[in-house]
Amino acid sequence: MNTILLVDDDDYVINGLLKHIPWKDMGVSIVGTAADGMEGLSKFRELRPDFVITDIYMPAMDGFQLTEAIHDIDPDVPVVILSGYDDLANARKAVSTGVNHFLLKPPSISEIEFVVREVLQQLNESQEQDELLSSYLQQQDIVRKSMKDAFFRDLLSTRYRPEELPDNRIAFMGLPEQSSVQALTLSLVRSDVFARREERDWQLLRFGTGNIIREMLNAQLGSQPDLSAEVLEYSDQEFVIIFLGAPPQEDESQQLQQFIVNLSDEILENILQFMKLSVLAGLGTVRAGYHELMDSYLESRYAVEIAEMNEWNRVYVYADSTETEPGKVVSMDSVRYLHDAIFQKQWQNAHELWNRLAKEMAGGNVSLPVCKGVCSGIASALWIATQTSDMQEETSGPGLEDLLLKLNRSSSARQMLEGMDDAIARLIALNRDDQVGKKSNALVERVIKEYIEKCYHEDISLEQIAANLHVNRNYLSQLFKRVTGEPFVTYFNKYRIRKAIELIGTGKYMVYEISERVGFQNSTYFSQVFKSITGYSPSEYNR
Predict the structure, then answer these.
(1) Pairing label, strands 315-317, 279-283
(2) How far, in Å, CA of 146 to CA of 3, rounded?
(3) Does residue 106 have a cis bond before it (omega within 30 degrees)?
(4) Which of 7, 48, 328, 453 shows the greatest Cβ crowding within 10 Å of its Cβ?
(5) Cα-Cα end-to-end distance for the chain
(6) Which of 377, 376, 396 is nearest to 386 (CA)?
(7) pLDDT in tens, 221-263
(8) Is domain 2-128 annotated with CATH 3.40.50.2300?
(9) CATH number of 442-542
(10) What's the pTM value of the predicted model, to 2 decimals?
């Protein structure tokens, strides 16, 4: 219901308006009355009526002055003037001061009804237009958000040339026409305690995590006017934060990168503190435009793989290697594809990939140390496949240590590649007929028995274990996860927590003592990991 303020110094007029005009029938409520312009202005500030009916000649402030004062506060408020004189000058002044209607006293009831209904129609039309505009803007925001989500998802999985980018869509979405891009991938660790919960509970945790990410970005990015961020809920356990900004000057680049790393670390700390979720995080490098976002995202995913083999809840930054001398680089994709083929026992494919890689290294002037590292990793992967196959008893020739020693004694990359050709041909022949799909668990069992169960109280890492076993670290990480179903760090932490629970049950130790006895040097971090796995803090679990 619309509201009206009546202003007149004549009580007879006020009482007549209140008594004889059918305000309720018109859908109007009298919100207040005033006896002069000053009181009317005070009542307007206090009550904020939808429109005002006022006399002209009043003490302290007349109707024209009141109208100007009201329009200084809100220029859209309609004002109706009542005048006791048939004065053309007043009528003209009323028009110049923005008065909507000018009525002579005493007005008839029908005249007042007509004017009031006309003003109400104007108010309602304006309100409908405002609501329509508000609805349009709200829908436009929803459309923009949906388009941004689809746009960035597409960029993470598809490579575009700069001229193929949709410039009109970029402008409509409110994104900068030209922007540097950088991807941060956050992978939530869904441990046993969360796996046992209802799916709805997990989605609530995921929703809360998204809110924390957005709130922190909104709070922190205000200090960096040239930097913004978009958040993608890329999968059930993965968020991708895309930083957008003008390419920084050389002297600002390092400072801006440190700001992003610090902000990312703070986000992880808040997720762990408030949601009790551990996170694996990887940050790609800064790229020159939207068309290179896919490269930064793939780098961030690679950094996440490194995080799986090391400490949780910290940001791993992808180390760019593009400054290596031309002709000295081995394609890591080629090495990775070969390891995948060996692991999946695709022997024909593995042999072809090795021949291609060997040709690349022989013709690319690859340094001897690089060649040794690549060949040692491949030899270890093949030997592991041999030892875990049904052909194990038929294996003949030198063992892995002898093969690695032979590689190490090679005086040139060519000599090493020739020796590898023979070893690979023999090892692939032994494995070619191995049963497809059989798990390679001998090495994993050795890691569990000799390192995790015996050395859980020591500060050890998968990288150290791989070095001791003469195995490529990435390959061992993939093998461990494939056999056990969990990354090494997850499995290792769970084993430590089981040992911690045994110590808690004795009632002999303080939390910090238990932390040290199971290999955690930081008791706070121990408590956080304990709660993320069990759902309770160490002190709560004891009770």
Answers:
(1) parallel
(2) 40
(3) yes
(4) 7
(5) 60
(6) 396
(7) 988 888 999 999 998 889 999 999 876 666 667 888 899 999 9
(8) yes
(9) 1.10.10.60
(10) 0.46
